[in-house]
Amino acid sequence: MKTDFFSGIDKIKYEGPDNTNPMAFRHYNPDEMVMGKRMEDHLRFAVAYWHSFAWEGGDPFGGRTFDRPWYPQDEMGNAKLKADVAFDMFEILGAPYYCFHDADVRPEGSNFAESKRNLEEIVGIFEQKQAETGMKLLWGTANLFSHKRFMSGASTNPDPDVFAYSAATIKSCMDATHKLGGENYVLWGGREGYETLLNTDLAKEDAQMGRMLNMVVEYKHQIGFKGTILVEPKPQEPSKHQYDYDAATCYGFLKRHGLENEVKLNLEQGHAILAGHSFEHEIATAASLGMLGSIDMNRNDYQSGWDTDQFPNNVPEVALAYYHILKDGGLKTGGTNFDAKIRRQSVDAEDLLHGHIGGMDICARGLKAAAAMIEDGTLDSFVDDRYAGWKCDEAQKMLNGDYGLEEISSYVEKADVNPEPISGRQEYLENVINRFV
Ligand code: XUL
Ligand code: CO
């Protein structure tokens, strides 16, 4: 360990479901085989730098509650100490990946060039730390929402200078991600939306955002970045309305700008809830469109109606998420990034570990439950049977275009088609799920 921030705490180990040691895993056993693959390779856990190390515990009603040795975060010495503590925690947890925004890891400079130099210096340090520890970068991203220059949007800003500043910032973050061997690059448009339509030109903003994402893809190919470009949907917050509303909306945007084969989606539990969906809805939708990339794992409070970014602790919800991920062939370049923060009353170093240990255990339970559902096969064969009628000749002709409305109409009359309702068996299926969670 490079620091004494987590003093007295050793690397967290798997000790089995019956242990009561709070600093041990009860379900996450990296080497355990699940459907022929190591658990670690299925889950591909990542720690999010922003919530664990950059966020200071403030909320809209009060300032910071945490007291960390790397505060204030506006100078390089503290950014380096923060990096030492971050890598200590990655090692303690045994999570193989991490994720960061530029603003999480380096102090803001007095101008763009200085901010970029600060980032490059930290990236050099990360490179060395990755080599020493074996940690890997799941994804990098640019923070285009915190600084006041982005208050009216980044790529969608009415001011072309902000568009330019954002493009330059994205380039520096893609360079950083590429240098660190990142496996994906994420774009989340927190301010790519509007506060009021009274001052907003929707068509112009769509064109600007489409051009920016096209430049990202062009630059990816120019530098030979092999990772996946991911867009992260979220319907609102901080903006009243965000253009990347949900998986289906993002797909429409990507199609419109010719990017559907170049970009995939990073889906987050809390964002799905804010959009009025479930997490599995977003995952299943993305999978059905061939767009599933990665997940930001957390949970939202169902009462508060805002993005609470809590650590997951609901096995049935997590199991259904991984069920759809496994059915899609698993996370490829993607992973399970804990976009989750401890509560602002959880002020101790060990709270950071409790949050992650619990989250990793819940995901392990969810993954095992999902694998058991697939291996059992009841759900799959029920769905297959439900659509089995489509295998017959007439049904195929309706689908492949051989039949139009006229042909179908004469077929219905000739064969005296007279369908009777068939049960969807939802209660039975929910009982099946209960066997595994
Ligand atoms: C915000 C959010 C972001 C993205 C990365 O709600 O999820 O942290 O994951 O910018
Ligand atoms: Co996120």
Beta percentage is: 5-15%
CATH homologous superfamily descriptor of the largest domain: Divalent-metal-dependent TIM barrel enzymes
Q: In CATH's first tier, which class of the largest domain applies?
A: Alpha Beta
> What is the count of structural domains?
2
- How do the strands of the widest beta sheet line up side by side? 5-6-7-8-10-12-13-14
How many strand units? 14
Major sheet description = 8 strands, parallel, barrel
Low-confidence stretches: none
Query: How many DSSP helices?
Result: 16
Q: Tell me the radius of gyration.
A: 24 Å
Distance between the termini: 37 Å
Mean pLDDT: 98
CATH-defined fold name of the largest domain: TIM Barrel
List cofactors, ions and other ligands: D-xylulose, cobalt (II) ion
What is the helix/strand order?
EEEEHEHHEHHEHEEHEEHEHHEHEHHHHH
Q: In summary, what is this structure?
A:
By secondary structure, this protein is α/β, with parallel strands linked by helices. 46% of the residues lie in helices and 11% in strands. The protein has 2 domains: 13-376, Alpha-Beta Barrel (TIM Barrel); 388-434, no CATH class.
Could you explain how this protein is built, in words?
- With 437 residues, this protein is an alpha/beta fold.
- The chain has two domains: 13-376, Divalent-metal-dependent TIM barrel enzymes (TIM Barrel), CATH 3.20.20.150; 388-434, no CATH class.
- 46% of the residues lie in helices and 11% in strands.
- The protein is built from 16 helices and 14 strands.
- It has helices spanning 39-43, 49-54, 76-93, 102-105, 112-133, 160-179, 202-223, 247-256, 269-274, 279-288, 315-327, 349-376, 378-386, 393-400, 405-414, 426-434; strands at 13-14, 24-25, 33-34, 37-38, 45-48, 97-101, 136-141, 184-187, 193-194, 228-231, 241-242, 263-268, 292-297, 336-338.
- Strand 7, helix 6 and strand 8 (184-187) form a beta-alpha-beta unit.
- The model has no long low-confidence stretch (mean pLDDT 98).
- The structure holds D-xylulose and cobalt (II) ion.
- Cobalt (II) ion (CO) binds at residues 232, 268, 296, 339.
